[in-house]
DNA sequence: GTCTATAGGGCGATAGAC
DNA sequence: GTCTATCGCCCTATAGAC
């Protein structure tokens, strides 16, 4: 395997540690492209390794299991998306999820990967996926609830609803609509999110 | 897309005889118990066969693939639940989903199985799961939209929202809340569904 | 630390024996 | 119609080369 020298802005690390980090990152970046282009179907470690151009063994050196690789790929993809298009502070809570949904819709493969990971997280014996999903839901629920509270202070969301409950509902709706969208792109998922926003804004 | 039977297009005529039919049904019933008790984890065809008390080959004789078995198990379980506790005509649309969610919560394994099937349906190369999920979403969306229209006529749901969009949103929220519930049972999924019902009932 | 080579056990699917 | 035997693939683990 040829030794690719990457310009790495990785902080100087001991020994050849920097090389490993760069390689790991390179694998992640290529893997993201693979998953984005064809979902998590046909993604045995061997297929991924072949397509990326590394050996099967090299893959398992950097990622302790197939599930671990999938989780890290999704995490990194999300990180890159956030870096590229950070959330505006100025938008409503549902607006955040709408924007996020639209963004995801440009890369169906990653939505498929997300569904696969969440489904795995629900089963026993998938510690990596479970940790990923639990953490993610808890974090997003918290962030979104904060946002809802701000919206309520600004009069953008009706004040007589519990912020955490709203956050839970919005996340659930967003996730559910995304799977329905993958199955049937013509269903009015945007309309449904808009409806939810309207219901949350109006005061009775 | 009209009714597509999963068994009709196979070259071999399985289950054409009374004995075969009975055996197939017996396998399904036992399999439902297995999945209900431990989800779709550790459910290789071999494990299922062993636990049910048939051979691995017998299983694949009656169900052309693992995925086909999973779909048929879920279909049959849902059918049995409906038979046992049919939906009251007298309840609201969200009420139907709430009742359904509560019912499902008594058998976590089947909720896990559902998530697994939906996730598989989103990928290429899973025709049985895809047919199952598409059909199911289309059917439930239609039924629920009809129900919403009735609710609107009765003044139980505000009249200024599109029934089909409401149905789409309610299904999405219900599905999403169910997965969140499996990950974190203490999260207020009931509260979230109640909130949605309240939002849909009140008039601004 | 990075990576290759290899072995073990389990899987879904299938051909062909009863 | 039923089921055993087998095939090729997969993930994981590990020993040891660079």
Would you tell me the overall average pLDDT of chain A? 88
Q: How far apart are the termini of chain A?
A: 67 Å
**Uncertain regions of chain A: pLDDT < 50 for 5+ in a row?**
1-15
CATH architecture descriptor of the largest domain in chain A: Orthogonal Bundle
Whole-number radius of gyration of chain A?
Answer: 20 Å
Number of helices of chain A: 9
Quaternary structure of the protein: homodimer
Alpha-beta content class of chain A = mainly alpha
Into how many domains do the coordinates of chain A divide?
2
Along the chain, the helix and strand elements of chain A come as HHHHHHHHH
Tell me, what is the CATH class of the largest domain in chain A? Mainly Alpha
Shape call of chain A: elongated
Give the DSSP E fraction of chain A (strand runs of 2 or more residues): under 5%
CATH fold type of the largest domain in chain A: Tetracycline Repressor, domain 2
**Counted beta strands of chain A:** 0
């Amino acid at each position: 395997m040829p030794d690719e020298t990457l310009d790495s802005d990785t902080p100087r690390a001991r020994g050849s540690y920097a090389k490993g980090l760069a390689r790991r990152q390179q694998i992640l970046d290529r893997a993201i492209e693979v998953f984005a282009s064809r979902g998590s179907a046909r993604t045995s470690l061997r297929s991924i390794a072949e397509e990326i151009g590394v050996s099967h063994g090299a893959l398992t050196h950097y990622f302790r299991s197939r599930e671990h690789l999938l989780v890290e790929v999704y995490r990194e993809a999300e990180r890159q998306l956030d870096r590229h298009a950070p959330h505006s502070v100025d938008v409503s809570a549902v607006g955040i999820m709408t924007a996020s949904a639209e963004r995801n819709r440009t890369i169906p493969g990653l939505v498929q990967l997300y569904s696969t990971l969440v489904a795995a997280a629900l089963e026993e014996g998938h510690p990596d996926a479970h940790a990923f999903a639990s953490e993610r839901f808890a974090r997003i629920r918290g962030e979104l609830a904060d946002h809802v509270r701000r919206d309520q202070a600004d009069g953008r969301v009706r004040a007589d609803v519990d912020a955490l409950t709203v956050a839970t509902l919005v996340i659930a709706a967003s996730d559910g609509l995304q799977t329905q969208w993958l199955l049937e792109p013509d269903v009015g998922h945007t309309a449904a999110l808009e409806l939810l926003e309207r219901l949350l804004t109006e005061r009775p």
